[in-house]
């Protein structure tokens, strides 16, 4: 399975694995799954850290790439098709990061690993 980790799943994996559900752990530990971390999540985490809403052990520019590599997550850049797809998604959830993650998942045929139900309501597959 090709899985896109939601920002919160990545943060829990990197900072507090006890918060991960047994299902999330099973998906992450399954070597047959391909795991991705979106540049959207890097952007969201960096903004929250800069605003003082999220403490990280090191600056985002050094910490995020090292954690992504440590957990063997493939980077997923933001492309124009995904940006334009956000305009076609239902207007039921306004969070721009969630909208872009959902669009990326749909465009790249990925399943989002997330506890957030609004991602499913936007049309993305979610576990």
Layout: helices, strands, pairs:
Layout: E1 2-5, H1 7-15, H2 22-29, E2 34-38, H3 39-50, H4 60-70, E3 74-76, H5 80-85, H6 96-107, E4 111-113, H7 118-121, E5 125-126
Parallel strand pairs: 1-2, 1-4, 2-3, 4-5
Short description:
With 127 residues, this protein is an alpha/beta fold. The chain has helices spanning 7-15, 22-29, 39-50, 60-70, 80-85, 96-107, 118-121, and strands at residues 2-5, 34-38, 74-76, 111-113, 125-126.
Shape: globular
Average residue-wise pLDDT: 96
How does the helix and strand content classify structurally? alpha/beta
**Considering the protein shown, what is the CATH homologous superfamily?**
5'-nuclease
Architecture, according to CATH?
3-Layer(aba) Sandwich
How does the major sheet shape up? 5 strands, parallel
Beta percentage is: 5-15%
Q: Tell me the Rg in angstroms.
A: 14 Å
CATH topology name, in short, is Rossmann fold
Helix content: 40-55%
């Amino acid at each position: 399975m090709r899985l896109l980790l939601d920002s919160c799943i990545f943060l829990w994996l990197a900072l507090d694995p006890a918060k991960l559900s047994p299902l999330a752990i099973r998906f992450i530990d399954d070597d047959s799954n391909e795991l991705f971390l979106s540049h959207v999540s890097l952007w969201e985490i960096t903004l929250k850290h800069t605003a003082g809403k999220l403490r990280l052990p090191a600056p985002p520019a050094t910490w995020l790439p090292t954690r992504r590599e440590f957990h063997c997550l493939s980077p997923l850049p933001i492309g124009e098709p995904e940006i334009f797809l956000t305009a076609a998604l239902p207007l039921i959830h306004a969070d721009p990061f969630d909208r872009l993650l959902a669009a990326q998942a749909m465009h790249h045929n990925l399943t989002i690993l997330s506890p957030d139900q609004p991602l499913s309501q936007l049309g993305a597959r979610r576990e």
